[in-house]
Design brief:
about 270 residues, alpha/beta, Molybdenum Cofactor Biosythetic Enzyme, Chain A, Alpha-Beta Plaits, 2 domains, six-stranded mixed β-sheet, four-stranded antiparallel β-sheet, about 25% strand
Length: about 270
Amino acid sequence: MRAELITIGDEILIGQTVDTNSAWMAKNLNELGIFVYQITSISDTREHILQALADAASRVELVLITGGLGPTNDDITKATLCEYFGTHLVRNEDVEEKIKTMFAQRGIPILDVNLQQADLPANCQVIENKRGTAQGMWFEHEGVVYASMPGVPYEMEGIMKDHLLEKIRLHFETPHILHFHILTQGIGESMLANRIADWEASLALVDIKLAYLPSFGAVKLRLTTSGTDEKLLKKHVDQKVSEFMKIAGEVVYGFNDESLEANIGDLLK
């Protein structure tokens, strides 16, 4: 089960805005058992959006899109989605009433451009945005699911937490993904790799992948495996961690979310 994340916005490409959306979505999708296969950032142009959607559909089963849903003329995502899915915009009366209520509660005059946020593709399922006027949209097309959301992180996260993550979980049959981190210090990445070469080769026998994540003075090892039997996955990982400790346990200062500083503090206490 693979997903692709598409972020739309020139502000990302020129370095004006940092794409925090993709990191947040990738983490939450991974917890559902969905691997993020690719992250793509594109400009606010019709041709670029159409090409990115078509390319993503050739690689993955789930495409999450953020950005380009604002009320101004430079936000063209909805119109381009209509073109891609062969549909047109229609006024959603329920969304229109919610927008009117939102503006009335805040005592802000409402403009026609604000009400146009209720114009949504006719063949989409609306995913409610409780934090803004740009609604989320769910499409199913030729075996691929697409979900489009606003690029404002606060709004995107609200849609995902309130509705989309659960909707994705129910729609797809996904495996369990298990990550385990071994935290080492006092040894360089290449020397550590040489020392544990035989152990690393043995990981393939139980379908565990290893990643080296070096930082200043430390090397984090990430073990990743997936499958339907969570207990069996944990058993395999625990066994391999135990084997690692016999080989290089003296360079290990902790596991997973532990920190060197906290563990030193515990020893001092």
